[in-house]
From TrEMBL:
Subcellular location: Cell membrane
Lineage, highest ranks first: Bacteria, Bacillati, Actinomycetota, Actinomycetes, Micrococcales
Presence of keyword Cell membrane: yes
Pfam families: BPD_transp_2
Domain of life of the source: Bacteria
Family: Belongs to the binding-protein-dependent transport system permease family. LivHM subfamily.
Name of the protein in question: Branched-chain amino acid ABC transporter permease
């Protein structure tokens, strides 16, 4: 195995982990409300700016991130309570369009407050590198991958092994039946959006040192994240992460080994892969097939 191949794969995993951060947040909202939140990227950027503001006051980065996560949780819950809930009883299409509007609005607010100039965000991990199979791998990349793995496992445990996770799944599956069973549907919806926003804060802090902090920092990442969430299965945290890694590695290997693709066309490779897989398995790699009684 050549060092170049290892380098491309590791870099692809690190890039895929960036997509996975936002994809996991999309999965949380979908498993709670059944919606796809197009505003997830701009919400994560706003959370990162909050952490950046705390850091600018001299606060340690770790503490600033913890506070940003807490603020983001309440912000996400507030968005669900004041905005999304007004449209959840109607068509899903209307609610999705509302999240697109939120995407534009939140990005505009971030640009208005902090300007559209790029900022340097401090890294949670050292910028040193280690050698793996002859390839130079950044500790920051390894830290990002490790963080995503931990987040994925915790979400899997939350949804499959805890009462809160089972309640969130029940609300997503059938809101009326969940309410009749005595579940506090409104609070659970707020918790789902809050968890997604909190995860977005962590993701933004992982992404910003590599991409530079700006209101449009996660715009292109959102496209890959949506592809990963759909490819992996919109109800599967594990699927979202695995699909994001597949996308990251596939585009890196294609750009490195197929001459006519290079850096310009490598975005088409994972998208083509996604279409082919979804033709065979429409519910995604790890998604559950829905059975409709007629």
């Amino acid at each position: 195995m050549s060092s170049r191949f290892v380098q491309l794969v590791v870099d692809g995993l690190a890039t895929g982990s960036i997509y996975a951060v936002v994809a996991l947040a999309i999965v949380i909202v979908n498993r709670t409300t059944g919606l796809i939140n197009f505003a997830q990227g701009s919400m994560a950027v706003l959370s990162t700016y909050i952490a950046f503001t705390f850091v600018q006051t001299g606060m340690p980065l770790a503490l600033a991130l913890v506070l940003a996560v807490v603020v983001s949780f309440f912000f996400g819950a507030l968005v669900e309570r004041l905005v999304i809930r007004r449209f959840e009883g109607g068509s899903h299409h209307v609610a999705v369009v509302v999240t697109v509007g939120l995407f534009v609005l939140i990005a505009g607010i971030a640009g208005w407050i902090w300007s559209y100039n790029t900022r340097q965000f401090p890294s949670l991990f050292p910028i040193d590198s280690v050698s793996i199979a002859g390839a130079s791998v950044g500790i920051r990349s390894l830290g990002t991958v490790g963080t995503i793995v931990v987040a994925m496992l915790l979400l899997q445990l939350l949804f499959l092994k805890t009462k809160l996770g089972l309640a969130l799944r029940a609300v997503s599956g059938n809101r009326e039946s969940a309410a009749l069973s005595g579940l506090p549907v409104g609070r659970l919806l707020m918790v789902g959006w809050g968890l997604a926003a909190a995860l977005g804060a962590i993701g933004g802090a992982l992404v910003a040192p590599k991409l530079f902090l700006s209101p449009s920092m996660l715009d292109f990442v959102l496209v890959y994240a949506l592809a990963a969430a759909i490819l992996g299965g919109l109800d599967s945290p594990l699927g979202a992460v695995v699909a994001a890694w597949v996308i990251g590695v596939a585009e890196n290997l294609a750009g490195g080994y197929i001459p006519f693709i290079g850096d310009d066309l490598k975005i088409a490779v994972p998208m083509a892969l996604m279409f082919l897989i979804l033709i065979v398995r429409p519910q995604g790699l790890f998604g559950r097939k829905e059975v409709v009684r007629v």
